Task: inverse folding
């Protein structure tokens, strides 16, 4: 009975007009930023972040989740139609989607991508609903060293995911960790790195950083480039909606849909792994288990399904460590932490006990977002696909203005706009250099968790660092962290020795 | 569509990477050497592991250590290293637009107000980006400004500083 009340409350909160409007608007924005190559859900989220602060927490989360999931739905469309992935994780979709389009099977390819995304989203949400209470129970027994090791594990996975730029990833992560120390130290109240200024005493907020990096930096980059590097965009669609027969055909690939959804969710749960890995692993598994692996890369429907189901399963998977441990495994999810905190809600093991209605609202919203995105793309695919024709100049100038004013509206401080502009230049340089600056953002978000838990643990052990290896959980996490570092090194060595 | 467009990736061996890594490394070293002045440790004394300096020392040390190879490469460049980055040229457009952003939103914001800042930024930016039609130069910035002003001033009810000039 106790549980049913919260489920009904969650459903009621989901079906309020504010929440439904936020959810639909977020999904539409998500699909649009997903379709526009070089933008992606991160840009959409940072643009709408300041506005989300004016909404109730459930509506704000629905808005941001809509952008997050919608972005992956949208990313597949240019990948299939013009072989330019809207989001990086859709590059695997382009491998089979574009050849299908060239063969005149664009409808089938798009149906595969959209049904794949839908199934991935629904499967991962079911897994989230099932696993979250179990994870929260386990997390409730976590001590400070365990939390410290989880956060370190997340950082290491993220750094190792960028191993081709390892030194830069490490340095940028540390830069993010250092940024998190600016301001008053919350344990000793000592002022750190404020350089005699009052304005830095409160520390550096994550919002100007993200808006600068992803909003301004990405817009400056967009000024220089065309959205799609081709002049002819053949949409290969005679109608604005998809053929229901093709959709039905795609739904017959039940095993591929299920396996890819599960793989994507597992990768999403893993801190720092990201949607590219999810899409890649799902694609590889579909190819491995296929009766015609030689057809992959030449226009195989299963390739599109697997890749999209894998990457769209990531958002719900990534919510699991956030909701149960309070640790964001992904910079996009990290942005959502601010929505929780601004409303006095602290993600962690107690969240499921303290805010059951909000948690149920998130679950229902995730289901609804996938249904809304699926329906919108079935009926309005062509108008969405035409978004790629918006001139990049208008888009980038508009985004810059929106980012700066949105940021000003948060604290009414011109200083924040200055920080965003400075970070915008840094972001632009990082984009040009192809440095993995998402590690900087994750470092900044995980910094306070790592520092506080480290100092708490060392205080408990009176300075003995072996406390991090004493509990079975922290020891297992330590071993897992070592493996994450060692295995890629061994594999690279094996490759180089042939 | 043309399939032949090639994506220009940044050259991983460019000395630009080493230069930036070295700058970050030197920055970390300077902070490490000036830690006593950068962190206020005058109050109560704590054991090192409880104090406010342990974490910054760890983080800055890692930053410095991992930038050392780049510093070495910068000073003693290997024969195949060059300054060539990605062949995408000098970013003239961002270099023109960025100062406008700073002028209109950091400086001009308080002087000429929200409406003129947004309109003039868009108008001048579009002109600098070689848009010459009257529709593009005037109508689009005006429509965008109206939407922005309506959204921020009337929907979200945000306070903007009263401009020193052109107070409508």
Result:
């Amino acid at each position: 009975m106790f549980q049913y009340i919260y489920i009904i409350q969650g459903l009621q909160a989901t079906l309020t007009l504010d929440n439904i409007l936020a959810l639909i608007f977020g999904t539409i924005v998500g699909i649009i930023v997903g379709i526009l190559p070089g933008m992606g859900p991160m840009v959409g989220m940072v643009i709408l972040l300041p506005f989300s602060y004016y909404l109730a927490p459930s509506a704000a989360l629905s808005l941001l989740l809509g952008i997050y999931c919608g972005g992956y739905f949208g990313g597949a469309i240019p990948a299939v139609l013009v072989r330019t992935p809207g989001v990086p994780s859709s590059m695997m979709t382009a491998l089979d989607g574009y050849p299908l389009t060239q063969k005149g099977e664009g409808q089938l390819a798009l149906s595969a991508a959209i049904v794949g995304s839908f199934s991935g989203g629904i499967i991962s949400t079911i897994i989230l609903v099932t696993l979250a209470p179990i994870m929260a129970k386990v997390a409730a027994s976590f001590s400070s060293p365990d939390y410290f090791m989880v956060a370190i594990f997340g950082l290491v996975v993220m750094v190792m995911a960028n191993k081709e730029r390892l030194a830069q990833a490490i340095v940028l992560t540390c830069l993010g960790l250092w940024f998190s120390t600016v301001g008053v130290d919350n344990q000793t109240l000592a002022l750190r790195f404020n350089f005699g200024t009052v304005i830095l005493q409160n520390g550096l907020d994550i919002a100007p950083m993200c808006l600068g990096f992803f909003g301004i930096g990405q817009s400056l980059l967009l000024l220089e480039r065309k959205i799609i590097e081709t002049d002819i965009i053949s949409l290969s669609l005679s109608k604005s909606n998809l053929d229901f027969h093709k959709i039905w055909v795609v739904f017959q690939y039940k095993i591929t849909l299920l396996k890819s959804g599960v793989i994507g969710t597992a990768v999403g749960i893993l801190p720092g792994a990201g949607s590219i890995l999810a899409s890649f692993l799902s694609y590889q598994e579909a190819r491995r288990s296929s009766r015609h692996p030689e057809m992959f890369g030449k226009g195989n429907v299963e390739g599109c399904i697997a890749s999209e189901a894998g990457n769209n399963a990531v958002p719900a998977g990534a919510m699991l460590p956030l909701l149960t441990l309070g640790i964001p495994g992904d910079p996009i999810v990290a942005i959502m932490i601010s929505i929780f905190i601004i409303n006095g809600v602290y993600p962690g093991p107690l969240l499921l006990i303290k805010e059951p209605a909000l948690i149920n609202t998130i679950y229902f919203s995730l289901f609804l977002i996938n249904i809304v995105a699926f329906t919108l793309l079935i009926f309005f695919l062509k108008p969405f696909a035409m978004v790629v024709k918006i001139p990049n100049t208008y888009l980038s100038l508009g985004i810059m203005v929106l980012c700066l004013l949105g940021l000003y509206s948060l604290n009414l401080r011109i200083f924040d706009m200055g920080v965003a502009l400075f970070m915008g230049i840094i972001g632009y340089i990082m984009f040009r250099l192809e440095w993995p600056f998402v590690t900087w953002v994750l470092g900044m978000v995980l910094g306070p968790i790592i520092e506080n838990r480290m100092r708490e643990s060392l205080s408990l052990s009176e300075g003995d660092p072996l406390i991090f290896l004493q509990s079975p959980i922290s020891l297992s996490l330590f071993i897992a962290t070592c493996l994450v570092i060692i295995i890629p090194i061994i594999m690279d060595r094996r490759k180089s020795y042939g | 569509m043309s399939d032949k467009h090639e994506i220009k990736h940044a050259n991983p061996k460019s000395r630009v990477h080493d230069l930036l890594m070295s700058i970050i490394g030197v920055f970390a070293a300077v902070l490490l050497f000036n830690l006593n002045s950068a962190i206020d440790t005058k109050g109560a004394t704590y054991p090192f592991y409880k104090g406010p300096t342990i974490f910054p020392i760890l983080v800055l040390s890692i930053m410095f250590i991992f930038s050392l190879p780049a510093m070495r490469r910068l000073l003693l460049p290997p024969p195949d290293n060059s300054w060539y980055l990605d062949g995408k040229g000098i970013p003239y457009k961002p270099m023109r637009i960025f100062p406008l952003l700073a002028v209109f939103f950091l400086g001009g914001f308080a002087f000429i107000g929200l409406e003129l800042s947004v309109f003039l930024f868009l108008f001048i930016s579009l002109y600098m980006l070689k848009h010459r039609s009257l529709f593009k130069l005037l109508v689009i910035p005006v429509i965008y400004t109206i939407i922005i002003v309506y959204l921020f001033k009337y929907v979200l009810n945000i306070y903007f500083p009263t401009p020193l000039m052109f107070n409508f």
User: Anything to note?
Assistant: Residues 58 and 144 of chain B are 48 Å apart (CA to CA).
